[in-house]
Amino acid sequence: DAAGNVLETPPSVVEFIDNRFQWEQTQIGPLLLTYHDLPDSRVPEIEDQVAEALERLMDLLQITPEVTPDAAPGVPVRGMIYNNRDEAVEAFPFQSEAISESGIFQGFAFANYGIFVGIGLEPRLIVHESAHLLIHQALGPRALDLPAWLNEGFASYVEPDSVLYGSQGLREGGLPLRAMFTASRTPSHIGTFYLKSESVVGFLIQDRGAPAFQRLLIQLRMGQTVDEALMTVYGFDTD
To answer: Does an H or E element contain 44, and which?
Structure first.
């Protein structure tokens, strides 16, 4: 006002939920999972598998996720599960006609909002998309955007029952790692992209050890580029 007094009101959050369905919720560790019209007998089994994988994921990230201002206490990340693609089509971001028609992507994570949308109550999907959100929170606001090979490779690596692919069959396949800053948008190349990304992250964690990977995350959290962080921790860059 004219006297220089300032009144700042706290922000309000308005939540809009797809009202075609009657949604139910369950909390699994750091994840609040929302779903609809599923047998009660199926949910506990999924909860157990997801909880175990998320616990390993949190140990690897060495973080306790910050509770975002628009999240309920103790619920740093959220997931919305649709039962089929026809239900989810309006909630998924448009990629391309080829991608949409292929039906390759089963989920999308919106890291800035701490939420993902997916199809099917499947542990691999739920953990994969949660990993995108949790690593984003672990790195914090100073970190630069992760290259897709690191972001997708990490999310694939921590999936339950993930099988690490070796480099032998991928050495000549796909693009060079340097060209994989963004994910492939060609359906025929996406499979190789994910296998290669998972293999590289698996090498960083399994061959060089989880503590080294955790130090890599610390460097990225400080705002280093991926090449700078790789050189600091491992002594080699992306190439």
So the answer is: helix 42-61
